[in-house]
Amino acid sequence: MPATPTDTAALTMALRALQEAAMEAGRMALPYFKRGARTDARVTVKEGGSPVTEADQLVDRFLARRLQPLFPDAAWLSEESVDNPVRLDHRWVLVVDPIDGTRGFMAGDPRWTICIALTFDGRPVAGIVHAPALAETFVAVIGGGAQRNGIGVTASQRDDLNGARIAGPKALVDALQQKGTAIEREPYVPSLAYRLAAVAAGSIDAGIASINSHDWDLAAVDLIVHEASGRLTGLSGQPLIYNRPLPRHGVLVAAGAAFHPHILAQAQHLPLRKQGPA
């Protein structure tokens, strides 16, 4: 457990532990994934209507068993665990999404991820977004840059809206296009974390999320985007704060540092109501 959020050596060791856990969790989930076909995993529906598979639950239990003893001073916040308000009294928190993009996982789309972040005072200091079916792993520690499969990544340096490649919910990207902006719509990605990781990698210029994304979708990739010289913010333009009583967020915009003000200005006029999956 790092003594402070600036203990680079300890954070690097913490990230290694997170990565090893995520990789093993990915190996556990893969047998339930059928590329291009419907999963044969057992599926139930949570309160609110979201699906959850037995793979989500298996990974959640495994990560809790593996990580909580390694980070005894950190509280636990996971999409598939019962929320415990004791986390609000902790400066360190492990924020986990066992499978981000469950609907894609169920349908055979390989763009699903396992996301783990270690946060301190509401901001991530180490994070991993692992896409087992794609053999891609994004990692970052604060101040250490971001990598994909061990190679450094940098967000797009674009500063012009014309021709920009933007991914997000159809209604929100449509609203941008209707404003007369000459943008290229990127295919929808079921995992929000993977969508935003593509911003960090420079594969797309911007990613947008609609209302109701959660800490577990965002904390790990938030750090990865920022360490790749990008920005991920709400419509206020301020960095996101994690481990609040309600771990939910509004419309979000991710882009390279030079492009972010331009796409943010456009996004501030988009419809803010819930527009399907984030």
Quick synopsis:
The chain is of the alpha+beta class. 29% of the residues lie in helices and 26% in strands. Strand 10, helix 4 and strand 11 form a beta-alpha-beta unit.
Question: In terms of topology, how is this protein built?
Answer:
Elements lengths: L7 H22 L13 E3 L5 E3 H14 L6 E5 L13 E9 L1 H6 L5 E8 L2 E9 L4 E6 L4 E3 L2 E2 L12 E3 L2 H9 L5 E2 L6 H9 L5 E4 L3 E2 H13 L2 E5 L13 E2 L2 E5 L3 H8 L11
Parallel strand pairs: 3-4, 10-11, 10-12
Antiparallel strand pairs: 1-2, 4-5, 5-6, 6-7, 7-8, 8-9, 12-16, 13-15, 14-16
Helix pairs in contact: 1-2, 5-6
Textual characterization of the structure:
The structure is a single chain. Helices cover about 30% and strands about 25% of the residues. The protein is built from seven helices and 16 strands. Strand 8 and strand 9 form a beta hairpin. The strands form four sheets. The protein has a seven-stranded mixed β-sheet, sandwiched between helices. A five-stranded mixed β-sheet has the order 11-10-12-16-14, with helices on both faces. Strands 1-2 form a two-stranded antiparallel sheet. By secondary structure, it is α+β, with helices and mostly antiparallel strands. The chain has helices spanning about 10-30, 55-65, 100-105, 170-180, 190-200, 215-225, 260-265; strands at about 45, 50-55, 75-80, 90-100, 115-120, 125-130, 135-140, 145-150, 150, 165, 185, 205-210, 215, 230-235, 250, 250-255. The model has no long low-confidence stretch (mean pLDDT about 90). It folds into two domains: about 10-150, Fructose-1,6-Bisphosphatase, subunit A, domain 1 (Fructose-1,6-Bisphosphatase, Chain A, domain 1), CATH 3.30.540.10; about 165-265, D-Maltodextrin-Binding Protein, domain 2 (3-Layer(aba) Sandwich).
